[in-house]
Write a structure and sequence with these properties.
By secondary structure, the protein is of the alpha/beta class. The chain has one domain: TIM Barrel (Alpha-Beta Barrel), CATH 3.20.20. About 35% of the residues lie in helices and about 20% in strands. The chain contains eight helices and eight strands. It has helices at about 5-20, 35-40, 55-60, 95-105, 130-140, 160-175, 195-200, 210; strands at about 25, 45-50, 65-70, 85-90, 110-115, 145-155, 185, 205. It has an eight-stranded parallel sheet. Helix 6 links the parallel strand 6 and strand 7 (about 185). The two termini are about 25 Å apart.
C-alpha cells in the first residue's frame, strides 16, 4: 500500500471511531494529478478540493469530482460553476449574483456552502455565525443556487478547548438549519479534523496528512483549507 493510501485509511479509521459517514475532501493545492489519482483510487475521497481557480482549471479532469475550497473572486466564477461539485466559500450577495448569472449562461445549477468567519477576523472571508440564517434566506432568491450547508475554517491554534467551542457553535447553527438539502457541515483540516469530527463535522478537508509535507517555493503557500 502506498503512503498516500495508508494515510487515507488512517483518517478513515478516525472517522469510523468518531463520526461514521463523514466525507473526506482532499485538499490538493500544489499536488500533482498522479498524487490526486493515488488518493482517489482508494475510493474513500469524495472530491479533490482546490483552493485556487487557476490551479483547478489547469488540473481539471472529469474523471474526478472537484470542490472549490478556497475564496472565490467574482471575476473567476465563470471558470468553475460547471466544473465543481461544491463551492465551499459563498459569503456575499455579489458573489451569489455572479454565480447565478454564470449558471444561467451555462445551463447548470451550483451547489454551495455558506462560509463562516469563526474568529470574526477582518482579513478573512466569511460571514459571522449569527448572520447565517439571514444570509441563507437572502440566497433563496437565486433559483440556480442550491445552498447545501456551512463551511468553517477555525484559527490555527493549539488551544483544543477553544477549537471545540468554535466547532460546537457552528454545529449548533447547522443542526438548527439542516434538512435534506442543507446537509453538509464542512469543517476540519489536517491539524484539527479530529476535534471537528467530535463536534459533528460531516465533511473534512485534510491535505498535508494525506499527501505529506511539501517544500514550498517563495511564491507558494502551505495548505489553505
Amino acid at each position: 500500500m502506498s503512503e498516500i493510501a495508508d494515510n487515507i485509511y488512517k483518517i478513515k479509521e478516525e472517522i469510523d471511531r468518531r463520526n461514521p459517514g463523514c466525507e473526506i475532501v482532499a485538499a490538493t493545492k500544489t499536488r500533482t494529478l498522479d498524487e490526486i489519482r493515488e488518493a482517489m483510487d482508494t475510493g474513500l475521497i469524495s472530491a479533490a478540493g482546490e483552493n485556487r481557480v487557476q490551479e483547478l482549471t489547469e488540473k481539471f479532469t472529469p474523471e474526478f469530482k472537484w470542490d472549490l475550497i478556497g475564496r472565490l473572486q467574482t471575476n473567476k466564477v465563470k471558470y468553475v460553476v460547471d466544473k465543481v461539485r461544491l463551492i465551499h466559500g459563498v459569503d456575499r450577495i455579489s458573489l451569489a449574483e455572479q454565480i447565478e448569472k454564470e449558471c444561467v449562461k451555462k445551463g447548470v445549477k451550483s451547489r454551495v456552502l455558506i462560509e463562516i468567519n469563526t474568529g470574526k477576523e477582518e482579513s478573512k472571508g466569511g460571514i459571522f455565525l449569527e448572520d447565517a440564517e439571514k444570509f441563507l434566506s437572502e440566497l433563496a432568491v437565486f433559483p440556480h443556487i442550491e445552498v447545501c450547508g456551512l463551511m468553517a475554517v477555525a484559527e490555527r491554534t493549539a488551544d483544543t478547548k477553544y477549537l471545540r467551542h468554535v466547532f460546537d457553535e457552528v454545529y449548533g447553527v447547522f443542526d438548527r438549519l439542516r434538512n435534506d438539502v442543507f446537509r453538509y457541515l464542512s469543517m476540519g483540516m489536517s491539524e484539527d479534523y479530529k476535534i471537528a469530527l467530535d463536534c459533528g463535522s460531516n465533511l473534512i478537508r485534510p491535505g498535508r496528512i494525506i499527501f505529506g509535507e511539501r517544500v514550498y517555493g517563495k511564491d507558494e503557500r502551505g495548505e489553505g483549507n
